[in-house]
Structures are given as C-alpha cells and as structure tokens.
Specification:
The structure holds 2 protein chains of 2 kinds. By secondary structure, chain A is mostly helical. Chain A contains 12 helices and 8 strands. Chain A is elongated and about 90 Å long. About 15% of the residues of chain A have low confidence. Chain B has one domain: STM4215-like (2-Layer Sandwich). Classes of the chains: A mainly alpha, B alpha+beta.
C-alpha cells in the first residue's frame, strides 16, 4: 500500500465527516422510532363504536354560539332558571329539577338550550369523523355525548382528557401519544446517544403494566422495529463517507481499513487525499 | 412450511416457568397480562412486549421479548421469586416447537411499587427476557 507521508489533521477531517453522517443516521432513526412509538401508544377509549375525534370549539365559534343564543333568547338567556322557564313556556309540562352541582349547571343549561332549539350551530362538525364539543371545562353538547361512552363523558366533563397540541389546537385525548419526543443528540467521547422519551407521569404504568392492568408497551416495540433500520443506516453512513473519500482521489481504502483492519494501522497509515479534505470545506469559508 | 408464531414461544416460556418446582411452589400462579384482584401474593405475570419478524436468507428469526414480573407484598419474597425466574430463564435452552432457540436472555430489570384495591403496598419486581428463535422460511 502506498501510504506516503500523511498529515494527522487529514484523518481527523475524515473522522469528522464520518461522525457527522453517523449522527445524522442516529437522529433519523430516533425520529422514526418516535413516530412508531406515537403510532403504538394507546389512546384512551372514550368513544362508542368506531373511532372518532373530538375537538374544542374555537373562540370564533364560541362567539358565534353566544350570538345565536342571544338572538334566540335575548340578553336574559344567562341562567338555568331562565332556560327552564322558557322551556316550560314553549313546551309546557312540569318544571324540572335543575342541577344543583355548579359543575353541571353549564351542561344542564346547554342541554336545555339544545332541547329548545336543535338548530343551534356548532353542535356537530361537518366532518363525519369529527364531533364538536363546546369549549370550556364541564361543557359537553348532547350531540357529542351520543358518541361517547360513560368513561368518555366523565373524561370530557372533568376536562382531564383535554389536551392542547403544540399548534394550539385543542383536542380530547392523546396526551401520551403527543408527549413522545426526541431528545437532543448527546455525545460523550466516542459515544453518541439520542433519547426518545415521554414526560407523562403515567407512561411507565402504560409501558410496564400495574397490579390492575396489563402493560401496553409502546416505546420498546418501536425500538425493536428500528433496530435493523439503525444498523443499515450506520452501514450506509460508512459507505457514503467511503464513497465521498473515493471521489476525492486516493482515499478509497479508508472505510475498508476502518471496517476490517488487516494489521493494526496507525493513524499515519491511512491515506487521505487533499482533494477529499478540500471537498469537505464549505464553499466560501473554512472548516467550522 | 408454515411459519409458526409467538404462541409457541409463549407456550414454551410458561412451560419452563411451570417446570421449575421450587418456583411453582413459591407462587400462587402464572398469569398473562394481569391477575384477578382476589389472587393471593406472590404471583407471576408475563406479557409480550414485541415480536418483530426478521426474514433473511430463507429463514425467519423471531426476536420476541416478554416482561416477566413478580407481584408480592414483601420485597424480599418478590426478589427471591425473581431470582428463581432468572435461574429458570436466563440462558435457558427452552424448546419451541417448529423453531430452534437461538438465545433466551434477560435484557432488562424493573422494580416498582403499586397499591392494590385493598390499599396494600405491593412490589412489582422482574425483568424483560428476549427469546430469539429461528425457523425455515415458508
């Protein structure tokens, strides 16, 4: 092998390029693992029958809702007593017992409003898979209620299942799923690490199970799925660096030597061409 | 040839656990997923974590992982039972019908506490076992 006189800095440049590509491979694998974990993460079953999605009304829709109510009943349409009086005036019958729990008053008022006027807007969205609930804790439209099971109704009324996406959109359910994130790339010497994690406190109970419920693993299956992919990405990173080096001129053997050293090469044994080093330099500036 | 699934692996795992007489005598039972509330402590719970198929060169490798936990009122008892499980499964030559076992190894530990429906503190101790099996491709 024609090793020739080599500059140690040249080898370090090669290592830098290899490291950059390996870091890129790790990041891509971690992102894919997070995506798979989000797919695997269980979402609480709150709907009857097929899967649907609920959303909170936006502020504009809420305003429209309030305007419609005001147009129908005037400014006095504020309390459950008024609504009940109006209901009796329209439909007759015995006065109903109003909900005494203040948390249920909003819901009671909302139900009665709907019974008075089914044409109130914003009850069911245009998308057949999407049902709209009324914004604010403790409010649930009767139309939406029909799609929820008993657990789902409790979850929505209590506001426990409400979750705000990073985009600001309010949805119901999916806290665990949307909390799965990829941590920053950490390197300690020759070790490079990137973590896929969730900060939700009950995630470990879902992953590993409890005395009362079987585990529903979502992080470890995702890791198992990307195991092979990770290996092939690393191989690809080495091959690409080798190709890049080969394109530079004499450095064809670099990756081969890294993979299977014939006789313990020293740093100076590895030939790196100046063209390759030059090709690594960003255009219009030095190496960073 | 039909590719056999993880059902056979699970069957072999449980058979290996039940085959260890000291372990069988030490626990009230072996349950999949979770145990009913009235089951006495300690007991063993196992649950499959993942089982991706790796098709390569005319054969299929199943990399199956199982969580095997002991639930006990006493952490010492739970640890003792866990040691028996480790002794039974770690590097064990378990026989899976239709598949040849490559490895059976403990790859992770877990120690946690929980409160049962009677308000008693229970210890959840155990680990994750990976079982790799190989079989000819269909």
């Amino acid at each position: 092998m024609a090793a020739g006189k080599q500059n140690p800095i040249e080898f370090s440049q090669f290592k830098l390029e290899l490291r950059r590509r390996i870091e890129e491979a790790i990041t891509k694998t971690a992102e894919h693992a997070a995506f798979l974990a989000r797919e695997e993460a269980p979402v609480r079953k709150i709907f009857k029958g097929s899967r649907r999605s609920l959303r909170q009304l936006s502020s504009v829709e809420l305003k429209a809702e309030q305007t419609s109510r005001r147009n129908l009943f005037g400014d006095k349409a504020q309390g459950p007593i008024f609504i009940e009086r109006e209901r009796q005036r329209f439909f007759g019958g015995q006065p109903r017992v109003l909900p005494s729990n203040p948390n249920l008053r909003g819901f009671g008022r909302r139900s009665q409003l709907n019974s008075l006027s089914p044409q109130l807007p914003g009850v069911v969205g245009g998308n057949p898979r999407q049902t709209t609930i009324i914004g604010g804790q403790g409010f649930l439209s009767p139309s939406a209620e029909g799609h929820l099971n008993s657990k789902g109704r409790a979850e929505v009324r209590s506001g426990r299942a409400n979750f705000t996406l990073k985009s600001g959109k309010q949805i119901v359910g999916g806290t665990l799923r949307n909390s799965i994130t990829v941590g920053p790339l950490e390197s300690h010497g020759s070790k490079i690490k990137q973590t896929v994690f969730t900060s939700v406190h009950y995630a470990k109970y879902v992953e590993f199970g409890t005395r009362h419920a079987a585990g529903q693993p979502f992080l470890r299956p995702a890791l198992a799925k990307v195991r092979e992919e990770y290996r092939s990405r690393i191989i690809q990173a080495v091959q690409q660096t080798r190709k890049h080096a080969a394109a530079g001129g004499k450095a064809v053997e670099i990756a081969g030597r890294l993979r299977a050293p014939a006789a313990a090469p020293t740093r100076n044994d590895i030939p790196v061409s100046m063209e390759f080093i030059e090709s690594l330099r960003p255009k219009g500036g030095g190496m960073s | 040839m039909t590719v056999s699934t993880t059902a056979q692996i699970k069957q072999s795992l449980v058979a290996a656990l039940r085959g260890n007489t000291p372990l069988k005598n030490a626990v009230s039972g072996f349950y999949e997923g979770f145990a009913a509330p009235n089951k006495p402590y300690p007991f063993v719970v196992y649950n499959m974590v993942y089982a991706p198929y790796d098709f390569a060169w005319g054969s299929v490798i199943l990399r199956t992982a199982f969580d095997v936990y002991v639930f006990g009122e006493n952490s010492v008892d739970a640890n003792n039972v866990d040691a028996l499980i480790l002794q039974t499964l770690h590097n064990a030559d378990i026989s899976v019908s239709g598949q040849s076992t490559l490895i059976c190894r403990r790859v992770g530990d877990l120690s946690s506490q929980d409160i049962d429906e009677e308000g008693k503190k229970v210890y959840q101790i155990g680990g994750t076992y990976e079982i790799w099996t190989d079989q000819p491709d269909a």
